[in-house]
Design goal:
Elements lengths: L24 E9 L4 E8 L5 E7 L5 E3 L5 E3 L2 H12 L8 H16 L2 E3 H15 L1 H12 L7 H9 L9
Helix pairs in contact: 1-2, 1-4, 1-5, 2-3, 3-4
The structure holds zinc ion.
């Protein structure tokens, strides 16, 4: 029989010591942080005796309301793929696209728990406009041609299946 690990005591396996890389660390203190949204843990390494701090947080979920009214979890990967396709053959400095995706994700969290797919689309457009005008125009031409039944996410999904070709301008 395996005894459950009581909060704040015992050993939670798998957290590697940053000082000596031993996996054998134990929790010596555990308390709420960030207004109860996180748990702060002090850990002590059995190998070298050093202590370090970890935080455990619930991953927040932002929902995207599509034009048909349905809700889907915000998916940063999907946003990244949509923008990557618009940028297909364009030169972009390393890290710029990742930063933009993080900005859009932060926007979604700031405006959550529910944001519309249109709001996300406008953020993508605004970001692309700053980093590459051609990609912006490509994305805008797809985005603005949306009509009633079609929606942003479906267009993005369609672009995913067409990796070799950029969206038509
Ligand atoms: Zn250690």
């Amino acid at each position: 029989m395996v005894a459950p690990v009581a909060p704040g005591s015992g050993s939670l396996a798998g957290m590697r010591c940053p000082f000596c890389a031993v996996d054998d660390t134990r929790v010596v203190d555990s308390r709420p942080a960030d207004g109860g949204r996180a748990i702060r843990r002090r850990r002590e390494c059995a190998g070298c005796g050093n202590r370090f701090t970890t935080y455990e947080r619930r991953e927040p979920t932002v929902m995207v309301r599509k034009r048909d009214g349905s809700l889907q979890p915000f998916d940063a990967e999907k946003v990244l793929r949509g923008m990557s396709n618009a940028l297909a053959d364009r030169e972009v400095a390393p890290g710029v696209l990742d930063q933009l995706v993080r900005d859009i994700e932060a926007f979604a969290h700031d405006h959550g728990p529910v944001v519309s797919s249109d709001e996300i689309g406008r953020q993508v457009l605004a970001g692309l406009r700053v980093i590459d005008e051609i990609a912006y125009l490509r994305f805008a031409s797809v985005y603005k041609s949306f009509t009633g039944a079609s929606d942003f996410e479906r267009e993005m999904a369609a672009m995913e299946g067409d990796d070799d070709a950029a969206p038509e301008t």
